[in-house]
């Protein structure tokens, strides 16, 4: 009897254990179900967000016709066919006409670029090669005249970054101010003001490119910089003139309206001067000048999106250059000879004729350049006429180079000091060292462009050695070190840390050299 009771109790305990296990399994199932439901909700939410992002991206960019490559703003509403392909109504009608025998022949259809028989190989065009849709808005000026900084404000901002060149900064400030006033005015009334395109003449390293870059950054407008030596007449190897507009469109993130208010800087413009005494076609000289005329004056041009050359798979768009500011720059090295010849002819007439070598040591001879001198140099009259504002930049002197080293907001010396500060090391330059650097730059005859190369040469060993020794606290660059006649002065950080006062640092004893 006792044995039967014991067995029944054991069975009850086992049954309870199984029930507990079943309950635990049910709990685990509930947890798993909750987790799965949460994951499914997260997935659904993620899918919804992705769908929203995709639709947002599709709404942001225009659709491109696969055949004619025109955006929907030019070609009209698109017809969607499989493989994510859009075709405009014109191209679709031509296709139907071909099928009916009323349009182009089958062979002509086969020669279309891209080939209609390769539709299955097409992928969606990336966003970098699409045009952003123009947002519908009421008629309003592209610029509010009140928001355009006045010339003295523009020049004041340029002064913070550029040393000297007072006349050039004043000219470009007024020209830019008038240009964007013109952009604002032309959108509001019918009074047309001519463009203020500029020709900037200055020796190598005088700051032509840097001046334009700084200006575009301060005005917050897109900027495209191109080298005139890479431009050729359409149909020849090289970039055609319309590629400069493609670069501006890319700088504006494919926003046509923004690009049409930007700045294009064409450097080395003196390299496309008309060739003399040649019977061959001048495809990189006079022909390029002729090609640039319509862009400078203002016209609508078809340019590829996301590329500088036209090909079958690149969509096209139209950009109006009417409100684009063109700035051309060049060193014009042989222009000085033309100016000397003209001035010597004037001074050699009469009994009181001046000596012919009077202008040999005139370092600012380019400032005496005239339109006639530029024509004699090889620039065609039509091209010069579309650049009404002509000004020159001075050659940099020794004192100006010293100021360039230390005074601008992002001066070269400040950049190197910042680099060493990251290692908690102070960097100083003696005045004699700065003068020695400026003299070396003058010898290279490349202007301010040579300064960084000279500093990098003697800073290499310092920047290599400093991370080795945590005790180095200060480095002083001397004239002897720049001239390779000695070493820099180094001070150990035994009693000071970065940020201590100048008086504290002066009390440090014991100078060493590398």
TrEMBL record:
GO molecular function list: ATP binding; ATP hydrolysis activity; ATP-dependent protein folding chaperone; peptidase activity; protein dimerization activity; unfolded protein binding; zinc ion binding
Keywords, comma-separated and alphabetical: ATP-binding, Chaperone, Hydrolase, Nucleotide-binding, Protease, Zinc
Pfam families: AAA_2 (PF07724), ClpB_D2-small (PF10431)
InterPro entries: AAA+_ATPase, ATP-dep_Clp_protease_ClpX, ATPase_AAA_core, CbxX/CfxQ, Clp_ATPase_C, Clp_protease_ATP-bd_su_ClpX, P-loop_NTPase
Gene3D superfamilies in the cross-refs: 1.10.8.60, P-loop containing nucleotide triphosphate hydrolases
UniProt region (Disordered), positions on chain: 22-55
Any one annotated GO CC term: HslUV protease complex
Signal peptide: none
One GO biological process term: cell division
Ranges where the Clp ATPase C-terminal domain occurs: 396-491
Domain called AAA+ ATPase: residue spans: 194-504
The name this protein goes by in its record: ATP-dependent Clp protease ATP-binding subunit ClpX
């Amino acid at each position: 009897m006792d044995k039967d009771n014991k067995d029944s109790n054991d069975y009850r305990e086992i049954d309870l254990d199984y029930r507990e296990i079943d309950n635990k399994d049910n709990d685990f199932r509930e947890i798993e179900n909750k987790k799965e439901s949460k994951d499914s909700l997260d997935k659904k939410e993620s899918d919804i967000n992705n769908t929203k992002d995709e639709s947002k991206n599709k709404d942001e960019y225009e659709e491109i016709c696969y055949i004619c490559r025109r955006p929907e703003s030019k070609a009209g509403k698109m017809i969607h066919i499989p493989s994510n392909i859009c075709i405009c109504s014109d191209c679709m009608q031509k296709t139907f006409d071909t099928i009916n025998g009323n349009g182009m022949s089958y062979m002509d259809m086969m020669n279309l670029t891209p080939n209609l028989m390769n539709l299955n190989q097409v992928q969606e065009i990336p966003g970098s090669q699409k045009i952003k849709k123009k947002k519908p808005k009421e008629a309003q000026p592209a610029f509010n005249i009140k928001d355009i900084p006045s010339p003295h404000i523009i020049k004041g901002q340029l002064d913070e970054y550029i040393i000297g060149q007072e006349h050039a900064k004043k000219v470009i400030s007024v020209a830019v101010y008038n240009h964007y006033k013109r952009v604002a005015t032309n959108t509001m009334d019918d009074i047309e003001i001519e463009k203020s395109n500029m020709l900037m003449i200055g020796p190598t390293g005088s700051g032509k490119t840097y001046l334009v870059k700084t200006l575009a950054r301060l005005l917050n407008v897109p900027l495209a910089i191109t080298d005139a030596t890479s431009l050729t007449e359409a149909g020849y190897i090289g970039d055609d003139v319309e590629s400069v507009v493609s670069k501006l469109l890319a700088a504006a993130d494919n926003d046509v309206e923004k690009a049409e208010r930007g700045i294009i800087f064409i450097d080395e413009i003196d390299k496309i001067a008309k060739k003399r005494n040649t019977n061959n076609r001048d495809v990189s000289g006079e022909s390029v000048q002729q090609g640039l005329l319509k862009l400078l004056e203002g016209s609508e041009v078809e340019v590829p999106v996301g590329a500088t050359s036209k090909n079958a798979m690149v969509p096209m768009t139209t950009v109006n250059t009417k409100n684009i500011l063109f700035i051309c720059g060049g060193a014009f090295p042989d222009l000085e000879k033309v100016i000397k010849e003209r001035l010597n002819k004037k001074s050699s007439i009469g009994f009181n004729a001046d000596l012919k070598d009077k202008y040999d040591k005139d370092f600012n001879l380019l400032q005496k350049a005239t339109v006639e001198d530029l024509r004699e140099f090889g620039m065609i009259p039509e091209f010069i006429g579309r650049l009404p504002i002509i000004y020159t930049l001075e050659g940099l002197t020794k004192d100006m180079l010293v100021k360039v080293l230390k005074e601008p907001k992002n001066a070269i010396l400040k950049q190197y000091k910042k680099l060493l500060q990251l290692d908690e090391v102070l960097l100083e330059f003696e005045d004699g060292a700065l003068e020695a650097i400026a003299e070396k730059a003058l010898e290279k005859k490349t202007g301010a462009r040579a300064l960084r190369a000279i500093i990098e040469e003697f800073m290499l060993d310092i920047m290599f050695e400093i991370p080795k020794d945590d005790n180095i606290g200060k480095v002083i660059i001397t004239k002897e070190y720049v001239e390779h006649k000695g070493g820099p002065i180094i001070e150990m950080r035994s009693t000071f840390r970065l940020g201590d006062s100048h008086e504290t640092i002066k009390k440090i004893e014991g100078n060493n050299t590398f």
